[in-house]
UniProtKB/TrEMBL annotation:
Name of the protein in question: Tetratricopeptide repeat protein
Organism, scientific name: Eiseniibacteriota bacterium
Family annotation (InterPro entries): TPR-like_helical_dom_sf
Highest taxon listed in the record's lineage: Bacteria
Length: 326
């Protein structure tokens, strides 16, 4: 770590000439990508800054936790996240920005999403592929894209709080709740996730028709609150407008309304690239995520979710060899 730079920034902070985020964030981010050990040390220097706000302290601790992850020091990741918990026991991790440390986060904070007044928590589970025969593989991939699109549609509502995929995957894997067709299992999964409602969806093929059926289930009672269905023909790329229509219908069942201005794109390839970006983040590769989300915006510049993710990652654009959306 360049200690002269660290001391200089420290003095600037003491003098009130620059704000903490402006002074440190680019250097911490660069160290994180090029020298994780230096990033850990730089974060320690930053954390000693007098008058550092709780929100800034959490931001630095999260960078430090991610650096420990790159170093393979999982115990240190957990230890660092426990420091976050002492500042804010109910801290909600931003999935897109911190995909690599979700496992440790859930170990410290637990899988249940914290309830907020006036907000309904919903868990959207992966689509079940009921297509058989030679077409099954095509619709296996489409089911993943459709699930992301459905979640993106419901996320546009300001009165719904969707459980992150990381939480869902954690509960299913850690507690081996594979058979969600069982009523008792559904209730248990929903309770662990802190979800008030759950959405289960199936895709099937009947002759030339693709039929997608979704059920909204109340967690506490396992009562089916509503069932919605869409039907279309053709390739999987024709399904996204129907998934958006399905999302609107499910929002009504959940007594919510989608925000039309915040709806995502209906370009199939854009959603494929967006999904790859999210998967890259979970594996800890922000550079690869940036490339994929840039590709998504090339497919559709109006893709709002991709635009938000791009802006979150834009500070790391230098590491992606200058990739920018057209």
């Amino acid at each position: 770590m360049d200690r002269i730079l660290a001391v200089s920034v420290f003095l600037l902070l003491l003098g009130g000439l620059v704000g903490p985020a402006t002074a440190f964030d680019p250097e911490i981010r660069r160290a994180y990508q090029t020298d994780p050990r230096a990033c850990v040390e730089l974060c320690e220097t930053y954390l000693e800054t007098p008058g550092l706000s709780d929100s800034s302290r959490i931001d630095v601790l999260l960078f430090q936790a991610r650096a420990y992850h790159l170093l393979g020091e999982r115990d240190r990741v957990v230890e660092t996240l426990r420091k976050v918990a002492t500042i804010d026991p109910d801290y909600e991790l931003d999935g897109p920005a911190h995909g690599s440390i979700w496992r440790e986060y859930l170990e410290v904070f637990g899988p249940a999403l914290k309830h907020r007044p006036g907000i309904s928590t919903v868990a959207v589970f992966d689509f079940k592929n009921c297509v058989t025969g030679d077409d099954r593989e095509e619709w296996e991939g489409a089911a993943v894209v459709f699930a992301r699109k459905l979640q993106g549609t419901l996320e546009s509502s300001t009165t719904l709080d969707l459980v992150e995929r990381e939480r869902i995957d954690h509960v299913l894997q850690e507690f081996q709740l594979a058979d969600l067709q069982d009523e008792a299992t559904r209730v248990r999964a929903g309770e662990m996730l802190g979800a008030q409602s759950m959405v289960f969806t199936e895709v099937a093929k009947l002759d030339k028709d693709i039929v997608i059926v979704a059920r909204v289930v109340e967690t506490e009672t396992s009562k089916i609150l509503g069932t919605e269905e869409v039907v279309f023909r053709g390739s999987s790329s024709n399904g996204l407008p129907e998934i958006e229509k399905l999302g609107r219908a499910l929002a009504e069942v959940l007594r919510a309304k989608v925000d039309e201005a915040s709806l995502g794109a209906n370009q199939y390839d854009a959603w494929v690239e967006y999904g790859r970006a999210m998967d890259s983040l979970r594996s800890g590769s922000e550079a690869q995520a940036f490339r994929h989300v840039s590709a998504a915006l090339e497919q559709d510049p109006k893709f709002s979710q991709a635009r938000t993710l791009f802006e979150n990652l834009e500070g790391s654009a230098w590491m992606a060899e200058g990739v920018t959306p057209r």
